[in-house]
Structure formats: C-alpha cells, structure tokens
Specification:
Blueprint lengths: L2 H34 L5 H28 L7 H7 L4 H41 L1
Helix pairs in contact: 1-2, 2-3
Organism: Lymnaea stagnalis
Family: Belongs to the TAF9 family. CENP-S/MHF1 subfamily.
InterPro entries: CENP-S/Mhf1 (IPR029003), Histone-fold (IPR009072)
Length: 129
C-alpha cells in the first residue's frame, strides 16, 4: 500500500469513527431529551461530537506516550489510570474492574494448572501399567 492509499484509508477510518461517535451521542441525547423534556439542536450535537473526538485524539496520543515512556509497545491499564487520575470516581471504578479481571485471570490460570497437573498424573498412571 503506498502513502496516498494509506492517507485515504486513514481518512476513511477517521470519518467512520466520527460518524459512530456522532451516532452514539445522538442516541444519548434522545434519552436526555425525553428525560429532561428539552430539545438539543444538531449544532450542539456536532459540537459535542467534534470536541469529544479531539479529546479522544489527545487521550490516544497521551496513552501512546505513557507506554513509550515505560519502554512498552502496548498500552495497559496503568496508562489508562494515568489519563483518568483526576476523576476519582472513574479511577476507583477502573481500579475495581482491573482488580476483578486480575482475580478472574488468576482463578482461571489456577484451574488450568490444576487440570494440567491432574492430566499429567493420569497419563503417568496410564504409562505405569
């Protein structure tokens, strides 16, 4: 793929993301309009959508830089925690989710380790006959 094709592909991806973001914001705004009995103009939706897209771009760049600073090629939960560190509620929620995920992963790996040990013992018993 040459550079022009990559630019076109990137532009298409950005436009697709912006459209999906606008659609999601529009769906949320419909709920808000019904709950609060207000009307939200398309201009407001477009402004919110564009502002959110720019913020997401900043977050993406920051996440990439945090990972690079830590000499990693992948973004992890710690990088996301750095982004949201000033939002206490979101920080606590993410920390709880990460702890739950870690606990789930540990339980899963213990189960598979136990199964592997059991299977190995069974194979050893079969070989001993």
């Amino acid at each position: 793929m040459n550079e022009d094709q990559m630019d076109i592909s990137n532009t298409e991806n950005v436009q697709s993301c912006k459209a999906a973001l606008y659609y999601s914001i529009k769906q949320i705004s419909k709920e808000v309009e019904e709950e609060m009995d207000v009307t939200i103009s398309p201009q407001v939706l477009a402004t919110v959508s564009e502002s959110l897209h720019r913020q997401i771009e900043c977050y993406a760049l920051d996440l990439e830089n945090f990972a690079k600073h830590a000499k990693r090629t992948n973004v992890n939960v710690d990088d996301v925690k750095l982004i949201i560190r000033r939002n206490d509620t979101l920080f606590r929620h993410l920390s709880e989710m990460a702890a739950d995920q870690t606990a789930t992963n540990k339980r899963g790996s213990k189960k598979s380790t136990s199964k592997n040990k059991r299977n190995t013992r069974e194979q050893d018993d079969d070989d001993g006959d």
